[in-house]
Amino acid sequence: MARMREEAAAALGRQAPTLSPKLSAVESAASRARERRAVRAEEAEAAAATGGDRESLLLAKRRRLAVKNAFLHAYHGYERYAFGHDEVRPTTNATNDSWGGFGATLVDALDTMAIMKLKKELSRARRHVAQLDWDKDYGVSFFETTIRYLGGLLSAHSMTGHATFLNKAKELGDRLVRAFDASPSGMPKSIINLRTGASRNHQWNGRLSILAEVGSSQLEFAYLSHHTRNPIYAQKSRRVFERLERARHPVHPGLYNVYIDPETGEFDGEQRITLGSLADSFYEYTLKLYILSGGRDKAALRMFNNAVRGIREHLVFYETGKGPSDASFAFVGEVLGGARRVRVQEHLSCFVPGLFALAAMARIPGDRADYSREEVELMEQRRANLLLAKQLARGCVMTYERMPTGLGPESVDFSELVDDNGRGERGKLDVVLTKYMLRPETIESLFLLWRATGDAEYREMGWRIFTRIEEFCRTPAAFTGLRDVQVASKEAFNVDNSMQSFFLAETLKYLYLLFSPNSLLPLDKYVFNTEAHPLRVFS
Q1: Residue 441, CB-side half-sphere exposure with 13 Å CA sphere
Q2: pLDDT for the residue numbered 372
Q3: Which CA distances in Å does 237 have to 44, 45, 300, 395?
């Protein structure tokens, strides 16, 4: 452990290496070449289309432009009233600096600008990034800073090849990587001071570490290691996965409690198994780390396969009277106290349909004869994973369609919609938390299901959600969340005056991609972090 601390200290003290102009030029040229190929592919598809296919392409293009205009409206409002701050307050035009004050909205939106080919906005943003100084005596969220700032910078590098983004990512990574040395187990704590490296956990959960926070940095640090040729970032973050797999839940194999003692690396505190808050992105990263590694990380895939079995057995609920093969919809719940199954689903859990859709189409490199046991299982479960993805997506969309606003609440109780030991179905969906925070998870799943199936129903579902966002959330400056989706009003009493950076990083990006050709960010070449930042898969 002392050696690891010395390595981190040395890494922090070193001058961040600057990409050579030659390397930067090569990567930028490669990025431009990929962009040209995508444009040519779209033009060829349109030229070859006839009749209904052509109309479908034109409709998708019009909708894509509408989403792009929504992004420009939101981002220009941010530029006008809050440039350089973390967020704009969309109804009062004030500023908010909840994420360190480095410009979270700007950094989170870099790759969205690149995808949408917004060159002027991206150029202004790059100049801001170039002058960022992370040397601040301030405690930031290790998790949020990793997925928003570090992930945003790395993705901007992946999309554009600009050296500025990788250099700034390395400067930040050198400060964040110290979090892995904050405990004997190697588990990072929730808060890290960017200047001193001092780390701590929150008091509200007994100073325990949180599953999603310790298990959602592996993509970013693996990418940083790959492109800086310094293995320390990947090694330290990957050891967390190794420690978690050894400590997995004995009663529910493949599933994990949300609280971890950072001293021992063992699960502790309140027994809660969920795919929602405090856990969600950890499960996401088990599959995505395998994909990012180009199929090399078989251990991460093993963790994913084990989790899938646990999810099916303990967390999935099907509509009353139906089962896995014939249910039209399903939900995911929680397990509390080790045994009590709870029929409450968070909006955050609506990433799960997309995760199963991704598993159904994940590329397995090499010949089938050379597949590992984990890869054979992934391949054999493709059909079942896609079916469950469709069922869960219908459950998530239902939470939107049953609200007067057409927007999904933060959490719902679906007890009366699912099988409960033979009780009758009364068809009621109870809202637990009424707010809508411009969240992306349902739209993310619709995008991935569109890519997996080509079924236009997923585009239609996404478009309906987008029109409701336009109707109820648009303000003169940007977009706002709602306090109660059961009230069809955008009056002052029902808006929350908040536009989190993930609205531009995730929600609008996934909507744009939903209506874009599949040649834009093909999923055998890119994998998205939990903040929707695409990272190019290692070759």
Answers
A1: 30
A2: 96
A3: 43, 42, 12, 34
Q: 10 Å Cβ neighbour count for 423? A: 11
Tokens (6 digits) for 370: 């050379």
CA dihedral over 188, 193, 197, 201, signed as positive or negative: negative
**Contacting residues for 48 by C-beta, under 8 A, at least 6 apart:** none
Cα–Cα nearest to 74, from 48, 37, 112: 112
Burial category of 454 from C-beta neighbours within 10 Å (exposed 0-12, middle 13-18, buried 19 and up): exposed
Q: How far apart are CA 305 and CA 315, in angstroms?
A: 15
Report residue 116: phi and psi, to 5°.
-85, 0
Residue in 439, 434, 442, 428 with CA at minimum distance from that of residue 485: 434
* Confidence category of residue 301, pLDDT binned at 50, 70, 90: very high
| Residue 222 neighbours by CB under 8 Å, 6+ apart | 233, 234, 237, 238, 289, 292, 293
Residues designated catalytic: 144, 280, 410, 441
* Distant-in-sequence contacts of 246-252, Cβ < 8 A, 24+ apart: 248/306, 249/273, 251/338, 251/339, 252/310, 252/313, 252/314, 252/335
Q: Closest Cα partner for 241 from 181, 172, 301, 179?
A: 301
pLDDT for 33 equals 66
Taking the complete model, does pTM exceed 0.85, yes or no?
A: yes
Burial of 251-277, coded b for 16+ CB within 10 Å and e otherwise, reads ebebbbbbbbbbeebebbbebbbbbbb
Q: How far apart are CA 329 and CA 389, in angstroms?
A: 10
Q: Which of 85, 89, 90 is nearest to 103 (CA)?
A: 85
Name the average pLDDT for the chain: 91
**Encoded amino acid at 528, one letter:** F
Q: What is the mean pLDDT of residues 106-120?
A: 98
- The length of the chain is 539
How distant is the alpha carbon of residue 8 from its chain centre? Answer: 27
Residues 343-401 have pLDDT tens digits of 999 999 999 999 999 999 999 998 999 999 999 999 999 999 999 999 999 999 999 99
Cβ neighbourhood burial of 6 (10 Å; 0-12, 13-18, 19+): exposed
- Compute the distance between CA of residue 277 and CA of residue 293 in angstroms, rounded to an integer: 26
Residues in CB range of 174: below 8 A, 6 or more apart: 11, 12, 14, 16
Name the E strands within 159-310: 191-193, 199-200, 209-210, 259-260, 272-273
Q: How far apart are CA 438 and CA 149, in angstroms?
A: 19
92-110 burial, b at 16+ Cβ within 10 Å, e below that, comes to ebebbeebbebbbbbbbbb
How many CB atoms are located within 10 Å of the residue 72 CB? 16
Give the span between the Cα atoms of 266 and 82, in whole angstroms: 43
CB neighbour class for 141 (10 Å; exposed up to 12, middle 13-18, buried from 19): middle
Cβ contacts of 196 within 8 Å, gap of 6 or more? 137
Residue matched to tokens 């001058």 = 15
CA–CA dist 279, 355 (Å, integer):
14
